[in-house]
Amino acid sequence: MSRESLLGEMEDVHRKLTELGHEYWLRYDLFAPQWWLLLAALILPWIVWWRLVDRARLKDILLFGISIAFIVFLLDHIGYELNLWIYPHKLFRFIPEMTAIDMGMLPVLHMLVYQYFPKWRSFLIAETIMGAVFAFVLEPVSVWIDLYEMLNWHHFYSFPLYVAKSALVKGGLEALLRRGGRRVAAPS
């Protein structure tokens, strides 16, 4: 098969998939109970975070959270593209990832752990507990309520990723702050 014909076939399949995805989202996602749950999971954590965030450390905490959100979104996209998992319900039609969790719940919870547990030992303990809750409680619940479907994945694979990504971001951020001549801020 030539490059042009293969590309043409890919475009046709993509066009059809886009049409089917749009129809599915309008018919089964938009305003369904799962859609409202995803909307709440995107907005409510940020409201809680704004009430709890240490304003004196806002820049550092927000940089940590944005870095976490980027990594989570990237890993989620890679897993989706590799057919490791899919999401039967989406908040936004054109974004296949679990946006409410990737941009809401996970970054906010990681930022709160970063804020309240500044020492490495307590940070890693808190992140390990949070990773276990997400991998072994919230992921199975998400499967049960039809928000998440594992194709070639298992909850045990998720657990180390929850902890590792936050440890990498904390280590990287602290190294950047030290290199820039700033002391790593302790909680007020």
UniProtKB/TrEMBL annotation:
Keyword Membrane: yes
Domain of life: Bacteria
Biological source species: Cohnella rhizosphaerae
Matches recorded under InterPro entries: CBO0543-like (IPR048147)
Protein's name according to its UniProt entry: Uncharacterized protein
Alphabetical UniProt keywords: Membrane, Transmembrane, Transmembrane helix
Source lineage: Bacteria, Bacillati, Bacillota, Bacilli, Bacillales
Parts of the chain that traverse the membrane: 30-49, 61-80, 100-117, 124-145
